[in-house]
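Section 3.1: Structural characterization of target chains.
Under the original work plan, the team committed to producing a structural model for every single-chain target entering the pipeline before any wet-lab resources were allocated. The record below documents one such target. The sequence was received from the expression subgroup and is listed exactly as submitted; it comprises 99 residues.
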Amino acid sequence: MRGLIKEGMAKQSVRVNIFNQSYSLLTEGDPSETMELAQQVDDLMRSIASRGHSGDAVRVAVLASLHLADQLRDAERRLQAYEDRSTRISTLLEEALEQ
């Protein structure tokens, strides 16, 4: 998660609620970003629970984690494809300039 505490960075405490549990988190930067992420996780967990999956918080959290991991993997693949394309375009431009 962006916003994890790094040595030397200013720490700010943020209180969030996720799936009926309150958490006090330390974050750097804008606390509203952490609150927004927590709200997205809460929304996802509530959506999963409402689809008839067990209301067990651990099960819902695992399913939400798998969903987010899948989204992250997809985003990483797309980013890699953009980076590859950018490298190819840069190489073509360099070759064109050398001619």
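The beta strands are 12-18, 21-27.
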